[in-house]
């Protein structure tokens, strides 16, 4: 059989105030199909993010990760709230295994930071490269807007009314975003590899907007297929194919997270993915997590239930929709981040 590939969606009509209704409708429909069937897609962003801009972003990460160990560890997450800051190789844990990557994490700044409260401390900005903070803050602004526009397209794909969209928009208008800057050394072990660069997981919020360097064969996505040969490590009944999400120039790799799964009452699934970087170069990536506001209570949307009702009436409605319980985003995030790091000082 032919190996499935991820859908490609050109989101430019949603980034252009003068675009036609029809051009937006087409994007919304493509997005609906991609989110329902795969949960992962390429988002063409040419004209909004210049290629030189994403290349510069990667170069900044390379320069940061090349700094001396002591300088990076000055920004250790333990100096703050155990979430914001630098994590050395092996410090991240997924499915009880140490991930073979180092990372520098930032979250939305909070008004009264308190490093004793989870995720409530201050971001730790490197002083090298000197332009790092300014460039990354500009990137955050850009990604927040892009995230909101993709969510707008998604709401159109779900056939939400204007009023319903206003409600949803309000629950993300102060997004508790997260930006991870990740460095992946090649996996140890001669011939083949030992361990994993980032274990199988789902992302926590709304949308992940991922930019990477051109390294192929690193990020893999579980393309669901009940008759597929592979299965999820944590759930053998979840079957499919692990397919490569290789970078495409001018496009971000985008996936939906747990909050979109709840909002859509499972119509869209937060999709499993992992990183296995066997190549011998040093890979860098910057996922931007566009999330709901910290205190947003996330629960199934009426629009998603309307679609599920229609599906039930149609042919492919044999499967009864699971009911999702409401969850407050900040609680979900604290629980997830709380289990993410190995506690060791060395
Ligand atoms: N904010 C996000 N999505 N970070 C992804 C972290 C990688 C997975 C994590 N160790 C876990 O086990 O969930
Ligand atoms: O580096 C990548 O390609 C993906 C990283 C990722 O999935 C994550 O940090 O959540
Ligand atoms: Fe992820």
From TrEMBL:
<dbReference type="InterPro" id="IPR027443">
    <property type="entry name" value="IPNS-like_sf"/>
</dbReference>
<dbReference type="InterPro" id="IPR044861">
    <property type="entry name" value="IPNS-like_FE2OG_OXY"/>
</dbReference>
<comment type="similarity">
    <text>Belongs to the iron/ascorbate-dependent oxidoreductase family.</text>
</comment>
<dbReference type="GO" id="GO:0016491">
    <property type="term" value="F:oxidoreductase activity"/>
</dbReference>
<dbReference type="GO" id="GO:0046872">
    <property type="term" value="F:metal ion binding"/>
</dbReference>
<dbReference type="InterPro" id="IPR050231">
    <property type="entry name" value="Iron_ascorbate_oxido_reductase"/>
</dbReference>
<keyword id="KW-0560">Oxidoreductase</keyword>
<protein>
    <recommendedName>
        <fullName>Fe2OG dioxygenase domain-containing protein</fullName>
    </recommendedName>
</protein>
<dbReference type="InterPro" id="IPR005123">
    <property type="entry name" value="Oxoglu/Fe-dep_dioxygenase_dom"/>
</dbReference>
<dbReference type="Pfam" id="PF03171">
    <property type="entry name" value="2OG-FeII_Oxy"/>
</dbReference>
<keyword id="KW-0479">Metal-binding</keyword>
<feature type="domain" description="Fe2OG dioxygenase">
    <location>
        <begin position="174"/>
        <end position="292"/>
    </location>
</feature>
<keyword id="KW-0408">Iron</keyword>
<dbReference type="Pfam" id="PF14226">
    <property type="entry name" value="DIOX_N"/>
</dbReference>
<dbReference type="InterPro" id="IPR026992">
    <property type="entry name" value="DIOX_N"/>
</dbReference>
């Amino acid at each position: 059989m032919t190996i499935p590939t991820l859908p490609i969606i050109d989101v430019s009509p949603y980034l252009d105030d003068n675009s036609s209704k029809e051009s937006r409708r087409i994007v919304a429909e493509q997005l609906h199909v991609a989110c329902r069937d795969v949960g992962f897609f390429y988002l063409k962003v040419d004209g909004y993010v210049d290629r030189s801009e994403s290349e510069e972003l990667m170069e900044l990460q390379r320069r940061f990760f090349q700094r001396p160990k002591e300088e990076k560890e000055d920004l250790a997450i333990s100096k703050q709230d155990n979430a914001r800051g630098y994590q050395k190789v092996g410090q991240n844990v997924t499915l009880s295994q140490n991930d073979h990557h180092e990372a520098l994490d930032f979250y939305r700044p909070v008004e009264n930071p308190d490093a004793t409260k989870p995720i409530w401390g201050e971001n730790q900005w490197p002083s090298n490269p000197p332009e790092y903070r300014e460039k990354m803050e500009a990137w955050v602004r850009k990604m927040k807007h892009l995230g909101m526009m993709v969510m707008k397209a998604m709401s159109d794909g779900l056939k939400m009314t204007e009023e319903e969209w206003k409600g949803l928009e309000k629950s993300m208008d102060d997004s508790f975003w997260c930006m991870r800057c990740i460095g992946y050394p090649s996996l140890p072990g001669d011939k083949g590899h030992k361990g994993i660069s980032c274990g199988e997981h789902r992302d926590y919020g709304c949308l992940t907007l991922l930019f990477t360097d051109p390294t192929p064969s690193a990020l893999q996505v579980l393309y669901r297929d009940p008759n597929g040969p592979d299965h999820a490590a944590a759930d053998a009944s979840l079957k499919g194919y692990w397919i490569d999400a290789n970078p495409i120039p001018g496009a971000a790799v985008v996936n939906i997270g747990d909050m979109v799964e709840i909002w859509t009452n499972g119509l869209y699934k937060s999709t499993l993915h992992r990183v296995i970087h066997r190549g011998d170069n040093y890979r860098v990536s910057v996922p931007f997590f566009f999330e709901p506001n910290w205190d947003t209570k996330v629960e199934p949307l009426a629009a998603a239930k309307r679609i599920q009702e229609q599906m039930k009436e149609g042919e492919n409605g044999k499967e009864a929709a699971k009911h999702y319980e409401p969850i407050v985003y900040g609680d979900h995030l604290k629980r997830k981040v709380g289990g993410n790091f190995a506690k060791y000082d060395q």
